[in-house]
Amino acid sequence: MRAAVLYGGRIEVRETADPVPGPGQVLGRVLSCAICASDLHFMDNPDGVAADDSGLWDYRADQDIVMGHEFVAEIVAYGPETERTLAVGTRVTSLPVLLGAGPARIIGCAPEAPGGFGELMLLTESLIRAVPENVPFDQAALADAFAVGEYYVRRAALAPSDVPLIIGAGAIGLSAVAALRRRDVETIIVSDYNDGRLETARELGATHLVNPARQSPYEVWREVALGGRARRVAFGGSDPSTPNCVAFEFVGHPGVLDGIIQQCEQGTRILSAGGPPEGDRISSMVAKRKGVSIQFGGGPAPEDWYGTLDAICAGSLDVSPVIGMAVDLDGVPGALDLARVGNGPARIMIRPTGDTALPAAAR
């Protein structure tokens, strides 16, 4: 098959071996796959992958790896020991985990688990779900991205007095905006340096947009949540009815988490999804003094993933505002460079079939 192959730390668009489905696996022809920041983290930071002891990732510089874990494919063939309940040709997507004879792997993150940056990929039969024909396959491919935002918002368990502040309006930050809006959260503050992504956040339900090059998002939070009053006191005496800040960190660059700690309100809860793979340092004494709570990653859970897919298929969740560009396999190296510097749309879709036209609503 033809694919955008990760080999020796670089992307090469060329022929590579066709994947062969093993026990319980399905061979799929890729219709659409999105580029995610975690693809770049995997590609650019192999040492960070090696430090993970879960075994779900397996970076091998001397073997072909076909990345891509946000996808829709059509069933081409079944491997052995499969139920074959869906017909060949059915459009499907899946929680991006490959199960079979070997160890469990994240699809697109190991040589034996090829993902959506190629013409063919492997899926786990027990995890696939059919995508109705009336649902645009680009939108169904984003179930994984929007499930991450759903996971973080669910784990935040916002109280009525909590006012969320989203730092970073990439696809995951935008998915959190959608998850907050689906819960009828009245005030959603979003901060990003990219004005185009801020406008996408508005489309998805954000109420206050902040470009930190022009204004501090923390000052905006204080104005919106506290009416411009002074900071909450550092030790005792605070009014329990005073709104609390729940900050979502969706950037993933060193220093961002510490910047939140330095500038946030007393008692802020931070949910950190960014997690720069090269590691980070935080001002633990400041966090201690302010009583900051920090929760790191871990999701999404299957309930978030499949619930998000159901919402997309039912039409109750419109993810199209984040889609701004589509490329064929030859366009993958340039699209990855664009995603790496954060100047492109929140989601760039890869179409191995070569059809790169976007519906008018997705432009």
Automatic annotation (TrEMBL):
Protein's recorded name: Threonine dehydrogenase
Lineage: Bacteria, Bacillati, Actinomycetota, Actinomycetes, Frankiales
Keywords: Oxidoreductase
Record-annotated Alcohol dehydrogenase-like C-terminal domain positions: 171-311
One Pfam family it belongs to: ADH_N
A GO MF term: oxidoreductase activity
Sections of the chain in a coiled coil: none
InterPro entries membership: ADH-like_C, ADH-like_N, GroES-like_sf, NAD(P)-bd_dom_sf
Gene3D superfamilies assigned to the protein according to its UniProt record, in alphabetical order: Medium-chain alcohol dehydrogenases, catalytic domain (3.90.180.10), NAD(P)-binding Rossmann-like Domain (3.40.50.720)
Domain Alcohol dehydrogenase-like N-terminal residues, every copy: 22-132
Superkingdom classification of source: Bacteria
